[in-house]
Design a protein that fits this description.
It comes from Pseudolactococcus laudensis. Keywords: Signal. This is Carbohydrate ABC transporter substrate-binding protein. The chain is of the alpha/beta class. It has 2 domains: 171 residues, D-Maltodextrin-Binding Protein, domain 2 (3-Layer(aba) Sandwich); 216 residues, Periplasmic binding protein-like II (D-Maltodextrin-Binding Protein, domain 2, 3-Layer(aba) Sandwich), CATH 3.40.190.10. Helix content is 47%, strand content 13%. It has 18 helices and 12 strands. The longest helix is centred in the N-terminal third of the chain and has 31 residues. It is globular, with a radius of gyration of 23 Å. The protein starts with a helix and ends with a helix.
């Protein structure tokens, strides 16, 4: 059986077991909460996979046993149609008492008291968070949401695959080092795979300019020449097989936002590393571990002329409380336990990635859940100089602008100068619309 087939089969088996366990957990939940008669009922909505659903419901069960006066109604969902579901519930005033939020929803819906000011809820302790990080959830000076964890773009490589090609990972310090090492790769192999060329170019330009792509008001910080420089650098690296070419990526991965974890070229070491959000790279590590390869976090190279690594950063997700909440003490008690509680975090584990609460990190570290590759990525991201992204950075139209233009260049349909001009002009226009929609001005 081939490596990628073996991992895919294992993934299906694990999913079946988790699904069965989640079903059993649901049954236990009804029994556990049936004794809480007369308790104040609150609700909590989230999305995710079966693993996250089970961990969250188990946490709720434990919370209810310790707080007989509070009953929590879980409202889980999958990953589909998140925007449509949220906006419909928000407009109809049917949000759960505690709602999971995407970053871009915070400025859009947090204006004018759109969510409750969490800083006024006495039973919620936010002192376990870095003050600057809490700003991700602030609108008009109010703490309308609390970010759960921080996501930073990091780089990681298949150390085993590199060594098979006589490449010493420790010797790779600059992008020129990676380009030189790529000459040792066999045909069809690449040093780094990124789901979008926008990630490496964003980090590169943040290093070169010292600025984010957009300022706090949503205005463009970069010039047309900046985009041309960034795209030219990326094309050179792709031609040198440092980055996977768009043609190869489309042929072997496709256009959907899927994990590389069960991709044949990833498992065979032909895609020798990646750039991704540190909270979501565990599956890439586990899949390679299963086939006998070792994935390691590496220092992110700094662009020539750059002074700091300036990695792109964002919150993984956030939690908000509906604006007309009546049961503030109970909601605060639940959310506080979810974010800071010892037993709660032992149960939740890393089902939502690594939390930002210092108490939660301590619990997970002592409990042996935050170790190895995951902790390496977390520690590297914590220590790195970061630049926070605007709430609309991952807007679908902006992503399409980038993707369309670089693919046109690689396929010989246009030149870099024309593509850079198009990216600059279209991005500036779209950003102006988004800044207005997000009420950043």
């Amino acid at each position: 059986m081939k490596k990628w087939q073996k991992v895919a089969l294992s993934a299906v088996t694990v999913l079946s077991v988790v699904t069965l366990a989640a079903g059993c957990s649901a049954g236990k939940k009804n029994k556990a909460t049936s004794d809480n008669k007369g308790a104040v009922q609150i609700s909590f909505s989230w999305w995710g996979n079966d693993d996250r659903h089970k961990a969250t419901q188990d946490m709720i069960n434990g919370f209810e046993k310790e707080h007989k006066d509070i009953k929590v109604k879980g409202e889980p969902s999958g990953f589909g149609d998140l925007d449509q579901v949220f906006t419909t519930r928000y407009a109809g005033n049917t949000l759960a008492d505690v709602t999971t939020l995407l970053y871009n929803w915070v400025p859009q819906f947090g204006q004018n008291g759109g969510f409750y000011d969490l800083s006024t809820i006495k039973s919620l302790d936010l002192s376990t968070y870095d003050k600057d990080f809490l700003k991700f959830g602030q609108v008009d000076g109010k703490q309308v949401a609390v970010p759960y964890g921080q996501n930073t773009l990091v780089m990681y490589v298949n150390k085993t695959a590199y060594e098979r090609n006589d490449i010493d990972v420790a010797s790779l310090k600059t992008w020129d080092d990676y380009a030189a090492a790529a000459k040792k790769l066999p045909e069809g192999s690449f040093m780094i795979a990124s789901p979008t060329w926008r990630f490496p170019v964003t980090n590169w330009l943040q290093q070169k300019t010292g600025k984010a792509e957009f300022d706090e008001k949503g205005d463009l910080n970069w010039s047309e020449q900046d985009y041309l420089d960034g795209m030219t650098w990326y094309k050179e690296m792709a031609d040198a097989h440092v980055f996977v070419s768009r043609k190869d990526y489309l042929e072997n991965v496709g256009t959907e936002p899927v994990s590389l974890a069960i991709n044949k070229k990833w498992l065979d070491g032909e895609y020798g590393g990646g750039i991704g959000w540190n909270a979501g790279i565990t599956s890439d590590y586990e899949s390679l571990k299963e086939v006998g390869d070792e994935l390691v976090i590496v220092d992110y190279p700094i662009a020539k002329g750059g002074k700091k690594v300036n990695l792109l950063s964002k919150p993984s997700l956030l939690f908000g409380v509906k604006k007309n909440e009546k049961n503030l003490e109970q909601v605060g008690t639940f959310l506080n336990d979810f974010l800071n509680g010892e037993e709660a975090n032992k149960t939740l584990g890393l089902s939502r990635g690594i939390p930002a609460s210092s108490k939660a990190v301590d619990v997970l570290t002592k409990d042996g859940k935050l170790t190895g590759f995951m902790k390496d990525g977390f520690d590297y991201a914590q220590d790195a100089v970061k630049i926070n992204e605007t709430p609309f950075y991952e807007d679908g139209t902006l992503t399409t602008i980038y993707t369309t233009e670089i693919e046109a260049v690689e396929l010989g349909k246009t030149d870099l100068k024309t593509a850079a001009k198009n990216v600059y002009t279209k991005t500036k226009d779209q950003a102006a619309k988004l800044a207005k929609d997000y009420k950043l001005k």
